[in-house]
């Protein structure tokens, strides 16, 4: 028994710790975890929450979101301020307590670093870090200095240039730029290059054929970018990663072929790892009722890929789950033509991922016995913290870590309706209409209860930018 009283303790929980799951609780003081153990070994605290035998897990970490996409209404910087508030409000309702957001602008990033730090600190409900999308030569030149500012992950769009979203202004990156970026980060502690692996040249040709045939269905969107379009890119990325002895990360991997390729290179000791999305673990191209809401990029696949992705998570080939949360209002997503409007013109991307991440992984993963609770916590929290240099400050229920934690009731369920989400646009996602079982009851950020039984208890702001340095993220 520690003499000094803590601020908060959660008791009567199944606590998922780095060394296993225990019956007991966690105590927090000044935003940090000060004790993990059986109730008798926890200090007294000013506030106590009885978890009623439910799981207590480290807050989930979403490594893949695109704040600022509400740029259809705002300019990019205004959009960032807007989305940090609205989308991280959804995050805390959903049990996500840290986020790594992709910076995306044609201008250099360095001159705006003060803004990027303050816009999150002032508007977010959770701590945040950044990846930078490098799609201009001047972005590549900024890499070393961005590392000094705490950004050490850089995303390359191999192949977005003919894509259906010219408004994003992403320029094409060829194998030369890919080589250059991989080479630059190879010596950088925590340096990672992230890839959207989809061969756009192939997809462009197929898309023309399908449009000429008059196809306008969800499966046509998949046929326009078949499994081989992802596989051939991953193969090339893995080869270049081996050649440069660097580290790469395939974002939103969608195919079973991708799992096979990553496994083959991982067995050779190449540092190529992959993230998948809840959508690819739950939906297929046959879910035609999704209409344009199911238009994501890369597209939904068949049953075989879905099965192989789950298998990859179980065997350790697929080590990360993110969401690719793209906050668009439904009228922009559908371009005003309704859910079953023009498939080719609709904006690609799913909405509300940061809020459905935990419920879907509980519902489809843990509750369906596809993965254990411990593996779920690894791929949605611990591994994400480790890959992005945030561990052990984030991603662990351990003494000294930030007291970011979530109580999960595996029996609690809800239908995803217009009231389910707490973001800018609760009206749609690929999970709309579905019942999800396994929901958070309490979300705790920095030792403070921010959401209890669906009620938001705090104001936005006062959160930390998480810079990743050589030695990782500094403690708060
Ligand atoms: Zn993305």
Automatic annotation (TrEMBL):
Q: Which cofactors does this protein require? A: Zn(2+)
Keyword annotations of the record: Hydrolase, Pyrimidine biosynthesis
Q: Which GO terms describe its biological process?
A: pyrimidine nucleotide biosynthetic process
Pfam families, alphabetized = Amidohydro_1
Signal sequence range: none
Q: Which GO terms describe its molecular function?
A: hydrolase activity, acting on carbon-nitrogen (but not peptide) bonds, in cyclic amides
* Annotated Amidohydrolase-related domain residues: 55-450
Please give the superkingdom of this protein's source. Answer: Archaea
Q: What cellular-component terms does GO give this entry?
A: cytosol
**Membership in a protein family:** Belongs to the metallo-dependent hydrolases superfamily. Hydantoinase/dihydropyrimidinase family.
> What is the recorded name of this protein?
Dihydroorotase
State the organism of origin. Answer: Salinigranum rubrum
Q: Which taxonomic lineage does the organism of this UniProt entry have?
A: Archaea, Methanobacteriati, Methanobacteriota, Stenosarchaea group, Halobacteria
């Amino acid at each position: 028994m520690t003499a000094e009283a803590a601020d908060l303790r959660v008791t009567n929980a199944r606590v998922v710790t780095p060394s296993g799951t225990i019956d007991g609780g966690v105590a927090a003081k000044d935003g940090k975890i000060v004790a993990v153990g059986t109730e008798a070994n926890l200090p007294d605290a000013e506030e106590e929450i009885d978890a009623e035998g439910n799981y207590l897990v480290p807050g989930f970490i979403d490594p893949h979101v695109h704040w600022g996409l509400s740029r259809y209404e705002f300019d990019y910087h205004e959009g960032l301020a807007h989305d940090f508030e609205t989308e991280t409000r959804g995050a805390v309702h959903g049990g996500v307590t840290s986020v790594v957001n992709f910076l995306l602008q044609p201008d250099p990033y360095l001159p705006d670093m003060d803004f990027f730090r303050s816009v999150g600190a002032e508007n977010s409900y959770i701590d945040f870090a950044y990846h930078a999308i490098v799609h201009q030569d001047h972005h590549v030149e900024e890499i070393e200095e961005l590392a000094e500012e705490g950004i050490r992950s850089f995303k390359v769009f191999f192949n977005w240039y003919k894509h259906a979203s010219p408004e994003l202004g992403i320029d094409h990156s060829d194998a030369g730029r890919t080589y250059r970026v991989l080479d630059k980060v190879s010596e950088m502690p925590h340096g990672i290059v992230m890839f959207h692996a989809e061969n756009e040249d192939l997809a462009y040709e197929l898309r023309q054929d399908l449009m000429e045939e008059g196809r306008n269905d969800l499966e046509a969107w998949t046929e326009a970018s078949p499994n081989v379009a992802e596989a051939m890119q991953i193969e090339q990325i893995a080869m270049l990663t081996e050649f440069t002895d660097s580290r790469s990360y395939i974002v939103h991997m969608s195919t079973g072929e991708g799992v096979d390729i990553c496994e083959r290179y991982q067995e050779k000791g190449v540092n190529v790892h992959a993230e998948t999305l809840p959508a690819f673990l739950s939906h297929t191209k046959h879910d035609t009722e999704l209409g344009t809401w199911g238009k994501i990029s890369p597209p939904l696949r068949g049953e075989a890929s879905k099965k192989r992705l789950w298998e990859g998570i179980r065997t350790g080939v697929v080590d990360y789950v993110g969401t690719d949360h793209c906050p668009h209002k439904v009228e922009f997503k559908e371009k005003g033509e309704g859910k079953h409007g023009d498939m080719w013109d609709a904006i690609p991307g799913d909405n509300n991922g940061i809020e459905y991440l935990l419920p879907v992984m509980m519902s489809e993963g843990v509750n369906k016995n596809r993965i254990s609770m411990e593996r779920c916590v690894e791929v949605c929290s611990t591994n994400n913290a480790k890959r992005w240099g945030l561990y052990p400050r984030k991603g662990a229920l351990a003494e000294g870590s930030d007291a970011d934690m979530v109580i999960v009731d595996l029996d609690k369920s809800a239908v995803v309706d217009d009231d389910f989400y707490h973001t800018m646009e609760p009206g749609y996602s690929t999970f709309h209409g579905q019942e999800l079982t396994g929901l958070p009851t309490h979300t705790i950020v920095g030792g403070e209860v921010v959401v209890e039984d669906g009620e938001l208890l705090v104001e936005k702001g006062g959160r930390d930018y998480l810079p990743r340095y050589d030695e990782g993220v500094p403690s708060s």
